[in-house]
Amino acid sequence: MGEKLRIAGWISVGVVAGALTTVSLQTVARGSMSPLPLEELQQLAAVFDMVKSDYVEPVDEKKLITDAISGMVASLDPHSQYFDKKSYKEFREGTSGQFVGVGIEITQEDGLIKIVSPIEGSPAYRAGLKTNDLITKIDDTAVKGLALNEAVKRMRGEPNTKVILTVFRKDENRTFPVTIVREQIRTQSVRGKVIEPGYAWVRLSQFQERTVEDFVAKIDEIYKQEPQLKGLVLDLRNDPGGLLDAAVAVSTAFLPEKVTVVSTNGQLAESKFTFKASPEFYQRRSGPDPLKKLPAALKSIPLVVLVNEGSASASEIVAGALQDHKRATIMGSQTFGKGSVQTVRPLGPDTGLKLTTARYYTPSGRSIQAKGIVPDVMVDETEEGSPFAVLRMREADLEKHLNSGQGDEKPNPEREKAREEARKRLEEEAKKPAAERKAPELGSDKDFPLMQALNQLKGRPVMVSKTQTERKEEKTSN
């Protein structure tokens, strides 16, 4: 396995924009190729020549070629993608958990950018920006009406460059400019705490390069505070994925040695592989096994894993492994259903191709592609239910999505009807004051699924969902 990893490179289950998540496996190029369709390639060359010579105005040759590549790859499925220089850089930043920017977690509120939290030690933190501050301008650009990802792009940039944020602080009723110098930021993918004597909560927001080290450090911190831990909640809600080796490591922390965590299967020989709960399957560099620092009790402590429709890829791998080995009770909502594997191959120093090459399977052989992990206990987001869950994008909603490869495809004529009802309810909800629409903070005593997970660990009654049912894979329309 160690030799294979040296040849293959790194393995990741990474993030693309929005709900699109990917499983990625970087490998060497194939040793053999099938014969090329010469007639079709000649037609492609002829079209290129006609566009170049006959189009109404001059066109960029390189752009024509890259657009042709992008179109070819995009026609396959939602996760295959051509990376130009910019998108390749963003892809690598997404898996490393590092980027150059100001260091704030943000959301949108009333068309403005709202600071959820400044990252501790970041330029924004040192500049005194606070939770709930609203950003109204980025340099000379008004934020009102700006898409969230566009605002992110404007705040990111090169190290040691300046950006001026105009901030409105509600509680002080004042607007003021803040000049911030961008620098390298490392995001924090692991949070956790002892929520009451004997019980702890650990949340993974994404699987990144430092997630395993941060996870081990957080568990160590919790056990120092509460040596007699009776139960743990592993929170994977809205975790869109990340590095596969990190997912294998987190699964290994709770599983017996050398059991299967996940397997992959595709056309290429290197895509047929089984990852086990052992260091050689998750260590990317030489040195001591980071999991050796974990307390032995973690292998047997009562465990609940929280998931929802936003749990995808790597988080589904962890949930599936712990469920199949009966190591944890999975609670929440059926997950996103991202179970395909992409291979990322460099095409040059700063461009690459991400191509779907396999599906992945849980230890029992289940494909979760376009279906997801079905919780052992269905739990709603609130005591009143999950009225807007049906509106969330999932793998089966993506155009040209792969099927599971295991049949069980059924149309769902009721889904659009349920979505229309949810949309109407959402419109009514939007009319309420912002304070009434605020969702409870994850990890707080107002976090309904977390409170139900605690009840499960304590052997108390759990308020099971009365409306959720298992979602079957729906027929693809491509």
UniProtKB/TrEMBL annotation:
SUPFAM superfamilies assigned: ClpP/crotonase, PDZ domain-like
Pfam families reported for this sequence: CtpB_N-like, PDZ_2, Peptidase_S41
Domain of life: Bacteria
PANTHER family named in the record: CARBOXY-TERMINAL PROCESSING PROTEASE CTPA, TAIL-SPECIFIC PROTEASE
Record keywords: Hydrolase, Membrane, Protease, Serine protease, Transmembrane, Transmembrane helix
NCBIfam families (UniProt xref): prc
Biased composition (Basic and acidic residues): 401-448, 468-478
Protein name: S41 family peptidase
InterPro entries assigned to the protein according to its UniProt record, in alphabetical order: ClpP/crotonase-like_dom_sf (IPR029045), CtpA/B_N (IPR055210), PDZ (IPR001478), PDZ_sf (IPR036034), Peptidase_S41A (IPR004447), Tail-specific_protease (IPR005151)
Ranges that cross the membrane: 7-29
Family according to the record: Belongs to the peptidase S41A family.
Organism of derivation: Curvibacter cyanobacteriorum
Membrane among keywords: yes
Residue ranges of the region described as Disordered: 401-478
Positions of the PDZ domain: 88-170
SMART domains cross-referenced by the UniProt entry: PDZ, TSPc
